[in-house]
Every structure is written in C-alpha cells, then in structure tokens.
Amino acid sequence: MQTLHPQPLTARAFAPYGEVLEATGEPDKIINDGLCGRWHDRATLNFGAETTPPGRAGISLFLAEPRALPYRLTHLERHPLGAQAFIPMHAHPFLVVVAPDEDGQPGAPLAFLTNGAQGVNYRRGTWHGVLTPLAGPGLFAVIDRIGEGRNLQEHHLTAPLLITEP
C-alpha cells in the first residue's frame, strides 16, 4: 500500500487544482462604514453555463462524519461540469486530496491539511478525495453546480492509499 504524508495547505502548492479560501493579509476592501474587511473575489466559480445542459450556482450544506489519520483513500472523484467549493463552518482542520488528470484518469495524488481557517475551491474537472473532516461536527457550506447532466465521475483505486500524520 502506498503511503502519503499530507503537507500544509498553501495557495501556491494548491494552485494547479484550484484556490485556497482564506482571509490572510490585509483585506482588499473596507466596507460597511469601515467595520468590515472584504477579501474580494477569491475563487473562480465555473458552473458550466456554457455546457449542455447549462448549470447554475447553488449553495448546499454537507454534514460529513469525521475521519482520523491514518486514513485509507479508496477512490477519487471529479466534477466535469462545474467547480466545487468547500467552506468549513467550524474551526477544525480537514484533509484535502487532489490529483492531476492524466488522460481522463487521476495521476499521483497529493494530500494537504487545512489549518482550520481555510476552505478550498476545486477547479472544474479536478480529481479530488471525498470530504474528509478530521473532527466534528464536519459541517460545510458547499458551493457547486446545480443542474442536469452527468457531473460526477468516480475512479476507484486499484490499491488503497494510506494517508498518515504529516
């Protein structure tokens, strides 16, 4: 069984797969009479408006059961018709697994650990692991494509991948 050690999630390391959603540095704008900082336009949310059939943006809530490290990854998935953003509604780290596309199949996976104050936006068509909170309650706001069409592809690994502590 192959073993993978997650690395801290950074915008630079995650850039080939999407965007890290976090409020770091100075806000882009100060709004609401100077009482609110806005980190503006942090993700490319492509929901397949140009696809047939077209899609639209939707916000859902996911409640995922917490997992623990070491974690056995058995499959990856991707959404060819739209991006998918996960924003935790808690302050706990979660595991993020991504893989490059190699001729329609996932390539070598990478694992990241969020710092508890980060979300992710997977680009349209990015191979990724399932939602994997490492502590309860595992509640996430998810922004993704709503609409007709086959927007889920799954790839089951020939051998599980073991993701251990960093």
Kindly describe this structure.
A hairpin with a 4-residue loop joins strand 4 (29-31) and strand 5 (36-38). The protein has one domain: Ureidoglycolate hydrolase (Jelly Rolls). The chain contains one helix and 17 strands. Helices cover 2% and strands 46% of the residues. It has 166 residues and is mostly beta strands. The protein has one helix spanning 11-14; strands at 2-4, 7-8, 18-21, 29-31, 36-38, 56-63, 71-78, 84-88, 94-99, 101-102, 105-106, 110-113, 119-122, 127-128, 132-133, 139-146, 153-163.
Please give a handful of descriptors for the protein shown.
166 residues; mainly beta; Jelly Rolls; 5-stranded mixed sheet; 5-stranded antiparallel sheet; 1 helix; 17 strands; globular
- Within the CATH hierarchy, at the fold level, what is the topology? Jelly Rolls
Helix content: under 10%
What is the percentage of strand-forming residues?
over 45%
According to DSSP, the number of beta strands is: 17
How many individual domains?
Answer: 1
Any low-confidence stretches, pLDDT <50, length ≥5?
A: none
Please describe the biggest sheet, giving its number of strands, its sense, and whether it closes into a barrel.
5 strands, mixed
Indicate the CATH architecture.
Sandwich
